[in-house]
């Protein structure tokens, strides 16, 4: 389509070219809309690609941005602020990926794993945009979450006309996108199915299951029966439904059926592809979404070209429609695409907002300051101390809790330990670890740990989290003090009644505990149904509960030194 029509958004004239057909190298055509200023002239383009539907993204012109917990917040309106992009004299091109929206082709599994590479499609899409008379041949990309992951997949293919990318809130390690410490996270289900405040994928009849294509009906029936032997899965109605009726939600079926890391997730892992990227990349993410922050930092370290990393403040969920971070994005693109020397590359590459002090720390690397890992030990009477417990288990009796399945109770049992009030401001920046010596009476459980900054008046803010499925407790060769890593390539049942050391990775964070504040750590095997943090998240942003009753004993004595290993930049008072 060569002609365009004018829209009026808040007094601004915007031209839109609707339902463009973009050819891929295999003959499939993708659908796209292009928005630009009223003058018919060439401009640089910012491309946004996802399976969420270009018509949904068009609501950015008419729907005021919503923040959680607004019921109008829709997690899939993520392509960016159309009016702002047009005002800055870029063309905003929003496309539907194959197998979604008005595009042709089929979409297989998660991120089209097993089908045509989405990076390959992005290459063809970008090069087509660059060749249009309304584009000056310079292309960047825009959008968060899935749109952000697509930017990295595109850049790894090295399309000649893609000059730079700016990624806010992308997902990178695709296993960790759905399984945190081996524990299934439901929010990707919401994004695909349209639940809990998300519209979901703009499905067509050509979304398919890779598992169904890969296995015979007999093999698949056996694999499904084995998956349903997991009591956590069997206790959750939605998962029973998905496994019995896989064509209801094919992509989610594939994820549920692949609970271990490996080829399924790694073949198109953006972090694995990152060394292929040599164009300028700016990565941005707000705190409070630790697993994504972990992947963002890992991706940043793997990039080879000019790069920046910005870690912003809490809370974790940006507006929908997504409008934040555009000021940074346009500074980046004005420099790398329009050639405007605005000094953006004269500034330190790493910028970190520190909660508590609310200061911004800049540096040449992450973490932005020298750190010293120090231990805080779990002690009797719910205390955290710099000194380990001197008494043996016969005197320092373990803490414990019994958690019934959430099918029969709505109470989540939580153990907590707190420091004494800090005597001086105490800053921590980096990742961390929790070493928990525990005995359980079942073959498996979840360990969910949350770290809070608790003020004098009792108000508190979540600082970081850690997750570990007990059967995924194995560590791999990357593990160092304060930086544990789990391969998640096999599940090893726990022998009931034995004391095991479970090492949880605490996701990266930056916080100053002000004088008079306490550091509080909470441990449970399920998440509380509502609290100060969960109210900021969509309703489906929780983890699969444990489906069996489990008794937990947490040892913290002279022999079993349960402790936190944390990244201090200053010495606690």
From TrEMBL:
NCBIfam families: CocE_NonD. GO terms for molecular function: dipeptidyl-peptidase activity. The keyword Kinase does not apply. This is Acyl esterase. Residues 330-565 form the Xaa-Pro dipeptidyl-peptidase C-terminal domain. SUPFAM superfamilies: alpha/beta-Hydrolases, Galactose-binding domain-like. The keyword Coiled coil does not apply. Keywords: Hydrolase. InterPro entries: AB_hydrolase_fold, CocE/Ser_esterase, Galactose-bd-like_sf, Xaa-Pro-like_dom, Xaa-Pro_dipept_C, Xaa-Pro_dipeptidyl-ppase/CocE.
